[in-house]
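re: that chain from earlier
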Amino acid sequence: MLMQMTDVQPLLRVPTCPGSADQAEIYVQGDLPVLVDFDSSVLEREKIMLEQGSSRVRRRAENGNSRIKRLLSPSKRVTHDNIANLIGLLRAQTAAPRVLVIGGGTVGQGMGALYDAADIQVIAFDLYASPMIHFIADAHDIPLDAGVVDGVIVQAVLEHVLDPKKVVAEIWRVLKAGGIVYSETPFLQHVHEGAYDFTRFTESGHRYLFRQFELIRSGVCGGPGTQLMWSIDYFVRSLFRSWTAGKLAKFACLWLQWFDRLIPESYGSDAASGCYFLGRRSTVTLSSHQAVGFYRGAQNPA
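^ sequence. v structure.
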C-alpha cells in the first residue's frame, strides 16, 4: 500500500540541493513537492507552476474512457505472474519491503496486488500530479537517498525518457544490495504520448540496459498477435486520420492476441509488442559478449 508522506519525507533528497526535502522550492496542488533539477529535465518550472503539475499528455483514461482502455488493452497474465513473483522475492528478503514505482501516476496493469498488499510499502512518483504519488520528479535524477528501497518497478516508462541508461543507473543507486527491479518496455509499438516517446528495445537490448543486474527472468509481454493489433490500430488511424477509427479496428481484431499463446517463445521474442526484465541488483556487469549470447530469438545460426 502507499506509504504516508511523513514516512517518505526522511528518505528524500532535493536533486539540486542534497539534504532535507524542506529545501524544495516548488509545491503544486497545495502540498505536493516538485523535486526536479530543471537545468537537466524536460520539465519546466514555469509550466509546472502555471499548470499546477497537470499532465502535458492527454490521458484518455482520466476522461471517462478507462473501461474502453481496459477492453482494448487487456491486462496481461505474464505481468500478473511477474508481479506475484516480485512480491514473493521481496517478502523472502525482508518483512516489510519498500518498493519504488517510477511512473506511478496511475496504477499500471497487473499492479493491483502490489498496492493491495498491507505489508508492502509503496513509494510512487511521476512527471505529473496525481493522488497516487508522493512527489513529482524526473527519473533521470531520483530524489531519494542511495540504498533505501528493496524493489523498483518501472513499467512502460523507459521509452519515455531521454537517457534510459541514466535512469537504470539511478534505479541501481536507490536499491539496496540485492534489491529487485521489474521493468516492462515496448519493442514493436508505435509512438504513443507524442513528443514524449523516444526509444524501443529488443529483449536482448533490454537485458543489456540492465547489465548491472543479475537476471532472474526475462521474456515477452505481448507477442506478435498483440503487436499486429497495434499495427492495425495505427494503420487505420493513419488512413482515416481518426483515433476512433483506429480503436474500432483494434476492437474488431482483439482475437489476434490469443495467437500469442500458440507462437513459440523464440519467435515471440523476435516480433514482440514488448518485453520484460526481472533482475537483482549486482556488482557484476554483463559483458558485450554475454549480451550477444543472451539472444533468445528464432534467428540463431544452425
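The longest strand covers residues 175-186.
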